[in-house]
Amino acid sequence: MSTSTFESLVSDLTRDVQRAQPKDALQFCANWFQSRLEEQRTLSRDTLHRHARDIHASSDLYVDVPMTGSGYSPGIGGPSVPNGPSRSSPAPATISPFSTPGPGPSLGLGQHAPPISPFAQPPPQNQPPPSSSQRSSLRNSASYSPFGTLNVAGNALLSEDHGMQTPPVFRIDGKDLPPTSPLTTSPPVNPFGYEQQQLSPPAPGDYLHPPTSAIFARRTSVSAESILVDGLDAKPLPVYQKSPDQLRRIKASIQNNFIFRDLDEEQETGVLNAMQEKTTVKDEVVIRQGDVGDYFYVVESGLLECYIRSNPLPPTWSSASPSASPKLAENKFLAPGHHPEFGKKVAECREGNSFGELALMYGHPRAATVLSIEPSTLWALDRTTFRTIILQAAYRKRTMYEHFLSTVPLLGSLEAAEKSKIADALVSRIYVDGEAVVKQGEMGDNFFFVEEGEAVCTKRDGQGQEITVGRLKKGDYFGGLYPHLFVRALLLIIPFHSAELSLLRMEPRAATVSAVNRADPSQPKLKVAALDAPAFTRLLGPLREIMERKAGERYGR
Ligand SMILES: Nc1ncnc2c1ncn2[C@@H]1O[C@@H]2COP(=O)(O)O[C@H]2[C@H]1O
């Protein structure tokens, strides 16, 4: 592993620990590394898959062979599902989750062995390890490694010659991809909007990190699709026709949801196309803990509750409907916040909230049961679209912003972890031609940089005439103090300087910055990344004094 990869891992871990402030730091680190490893292995599998397909290689080279019936599942810790449906062929992406009644998802439970956690309990004594015929084709090498079945960068096997291919190098936009999870970006608040219960939550730390194996009470595994990092091999995403009213309702449901915030127009269209309407009745189980993740949901109306059961689930659990047992139905709520079958209540989901992201993000079984408390209307997004569009957008956003922030001299004194926090807090906005991003005279409450397209800076002179004082293009910034820009575009000194000062001192903007009227409509619209004032103060707080002093020295204010 190169030093830079190591440093980048350590700095990412440090950032996430600072954010999550876990009670059990060691467990948090263990989960964190496991999650990274699994994500990278998934990427490896996908790349090997593509390579193998190109050279017509046997699928044994890249597909984990199921360890059927062994029950050897140290990563998950629960009993196996002896009669679980087999995964004979992948379900088409357009299969509706709502066509078949019953608790299980439309995709069958895989019988593949789950990723073996290096941090898990050893297998029970009375259960032998899988026989050699049941193991992966890589059985003499990585399949017994706690780190999985592929020879990926970071795997100790790389130091030995196993006659295997050189591990692939992953690149996005020409940049090497370190072993990383695309969404370890959990902010201190729950971005998915559901209200977490404060009553002794079962998992320590931040649930957005891969849930601990303790809550996966039934053995399931997921052969996760990888994130399509280069888009070259993208499968067509599902498209479900919608009425204008449905489109309006989806947009209203997702408008304040963090997860959709960074999508560009094309990505948003992809998401809107792929969403399917689902209505639930009272007491319907929408997600069952331990199942394979198939859909992500946004709540348009109604109320749902999330429950976590920490002790092992009975093997027949998935076939039991919540109302199947009259006893359970009678004693439904033995104690407040506790369901006799589904366990402890951990969250509520209402209008505009979303749920079901964890299993899709991490390829783990469902971490909780989600029960409809009132008849509800949901919008469901399939796993492939979720991973292809939403995770990719989040990953690209972070990578792009981190790269940008690393080029800003003023931020040079910030730690990598601090820059990552800023990257995560930036929000993209698109402006139509002529639309103002900031207006002269308004109070400054945001800080921006140009992601795409061009902006024009104008200023009213003493006679009220609008004068163009400069143009901004990709990589230029306003609302911030970036001296090199002033050198490059002297005319921009006034608006840049003023915009920055207005943010620091909450003075009115001294110039207007708007989207240019494009001569060529095929050119991109103006897209900016914004940092709002509270985030600016919170994240750049340590720099505030320096910035104010520098602004004063440089511009005499
Ligand atoms: N405390 C929690 N732990 C795990 N999942 C939770 C919690 N609160 C709400 N949930 C949601 O419940 C969902 C169950 O399915 P997922 O694991 O895919 O994603 C989970 C989250 O969206």
Automatic annotation (TrEMBL):
Protein family membership: Belongs to the cAMP-dependent kinase regulatory chain family.
Cytoplasm in keyword set: no
Keywords (A to Z) from UniProt: cAMP, cAMP-binding, Nucleotide-binding, Phosphoprotein, Repeat
Organism expressing this protein natively: Marasmius tenuissimus
Ranges of Pro residues composition bias in the record: 115-131
CDD domains, A to Z: CAP_ED, DD_R_ScPKA-like
Limits of the Cyclic nucleotide-binding domain: 259-407, 410-557
UniProt-annotated stretches for the region Disordered: 73-144, 164-196
Listed name of the protein: Cyclic nucleotide-binding domain-containing protein
